[in-house]
Design brief:
This protein has about 450 residues and is of the alpha+beta class. It has one domain: Cytochrome P450 (Cytochrome p450, Orthogonal Bundle). Helices cover about 50% and strands about 10% of the residues. Strand 6 and strand 7 form a beta hairpin. The longest helix is centred in the middle third of the chain and has 32 residues.
Length: about 450
């Protein structure tokens, strides 16, 4: 790795330890301050000197050359290992990474989405049926309950079994524990990862993880011992898949990929949904326009129709733009000497794309601090101007599933219930674990049930 800061572009002048602490405590405002001073490229001293890039042409150079001028080794994502494991698709490299991606992609695409559509609809309906008119609730708690239940059913095929309920409870507790500022500090400073007992934060997290691990391995063992070819959940599909040499995934590989889906897949979608509900109800004009589109749907619309609704898509896209759940792309390493934005980078230099800064460029997104879904109706952005799911060889495998889940859940809830914010005050983004989330609980209340305006699907196309 490159360690000579004088050879790197726009190195921050403060001591490295203080830079890391500021990155942990206030990553968004810290990036904004750096961009205000250095614009599109600067070097921050984290564990290793890291070049931050937010220029779309430079990002295209980086992300389209993953195997030529750059590489994206999983070893650089070791910060995720305590959460996801050593065999996660995020933490492995090379041929092993390519193998895992090939095995993981099929369950998240094509005809499989129709099955997931029913699961998403049923889970969302079950959650909202528990709401009481006039009783406030935390949006983030509700969206996490929805996404976790969807994971239980779509990923594991587990519905109301004791194991499913216990696993959902433990994963929720584990995510909350892992999202605290102190737990993030442990991830960045591995020497602090010491088990000092169940009453300490890291000790508590380890014990929760062990309980989750035990349940996952029990489920994998049961499936091995009692195979059922009729099952269509993601775990069953992964257990039945084979690589080019005819080899299945090991128990450890299955466990780590399941943890990746439960942690990375659930946390991101739950947070994005929470942001969407905030913005939709913060801005009456957005809500009215979205409801007008949804009210044209049948009582039981085809999921493919929902997926293609233009304004719903614009609202979801703007939600993922203004506060992207992932602040950065996964890191790349320079393989051969190259020029990036006029700076000569040596082999071993660590480079990341700042998704947040890219999404807040004034030249791409005028008035970037304002929530304006119309941006995505007026023009189409390239994969290097808008990348909420990353890009290149490390692009999120679950992108299609996450977008589908987000749109289906929003359409179902907004069509069935009239909601409003309890507090219309401003909400900003802050760090939650390794992602971003609202800086305070967003409380909402159900005003009434909504009577659907049923009409023919032809109206949608007019």
């Amino acid at each position: 790795m490159a360690t000579n800061m004088t050879q790197l572009p726009n190195c921050l002048p403060t001591p490295g330890f203080l830079q890391l602490l500021q990155w942990i405590a206030r990553p968004i405002s810290y990036m904004e301050a750096c961009a205000k001073r250095y614009r599109d490229i600067f070097t921050m001293q984290l564990d290793t000197p890291t070049v931050f890039v937010s220029n779309p042409q430079a990002l295209q150079q980086i992300l389209s050359n993953d195997t030529k001028d750059f590489e994206a080794p999983g070893e650089l994502n070791s910060i995720f290992k305590p959460l996801l494991g050593k065999q996660s698709v995020i933490t492995i490299s090379g041929a092993q990474h390519q193998r895992q991606r090939r095995l993981l992609i099929p369950p998240f695409h094509g005809e499989r989405m129709k099955i997931y559509g029913q699961v998403i609809n049923d889970v969302t309906e079950g959650v909202i049926n528990q709401w009481q008119i006039g009783k406030p609730f935390s949006v983030r708690s509700v969206t996490q309950a929805i996404t976790l239940q969807i994971m239980m059913q779509a990923v594991f095929g587990l519905y109301h079994s004791p194991r499913a309920q216990l696993l959902q409870q433990l994963v929720g507790e584990f995510l909350d524990q892992a999202g605290t500022p102190l737990s993030v500090t442990f991830l960045y400073f591995p020497f602090l990862q010491r088990d000092l007992g169940p009453l300490t934060p890291w000790g508590r997290q380890l014990r929760l993880q062990r309980e989750v691990d035990q349940l996952l391995y029990e489920e994998i063992r049961d499936r091995r011992e009692n195979p059922d070819p009729s099952r269509t959940d993601i775990l069953s599909l992964l257990m039945g898949s084979r690589d080019e040499e005819g080899q299945p995934m090991t128990d450890e590989e299955l466990h780590d990929e399941l943890m990746t889906l439960l942690v990375a897949g659930n946390e991101t979608t739950a947070t994005a949904l929470a942001w969407a509900f905030y913005w939709i109800h913060k801005l009456p004009a957005v809500r009215e326009k979205l409801l007008e589109e949804l009210d044209r749907l049948d009582d039981n619309p085809d999921p493919n129709i929902i997926l293609k609704l233009p304004y719903l898509n614009a609202v979801c896209s703007e939600t993922l733009r203004i506060y992207p759940v992932a602040m950065l792309t996964l890191p790349r390493v320079v393989k051969t000497p190259l020029s990036l934005m006029g700076y000569e980078l040596e082999p071993g230099t660590l480079v990341v794309g700042s998704i947040y800064l890219l999404h807040h460029r004034e030249d791409l997104y005028p008035q970037p601090e304002q929530f304006k879904p119309e941006r995505f109706l007026e023009r189409q952005f390239s994969p290097y101007e808008y990348l909420p799911f990353g890009g290149g060889a490390r692009r999120c495998i679950g992108q299609a599933f996450a977008q589908f889940e987000m749109k289906m859940a929003l359409a179902k809830i907004l069509s069935c219930r009239e909601l409003e914010l309890v507090d219309r005050g401003e909400v900003q983004a802050k760090r939650r674990g390794l992602v971003t989330a609202p800086d305070r609980p967003v409380q909402m209340v159900v005003k009434s049930e909504r009577a659907l305006k049923a009409s023919s699907l032809e109206l949608i196309n007019n």
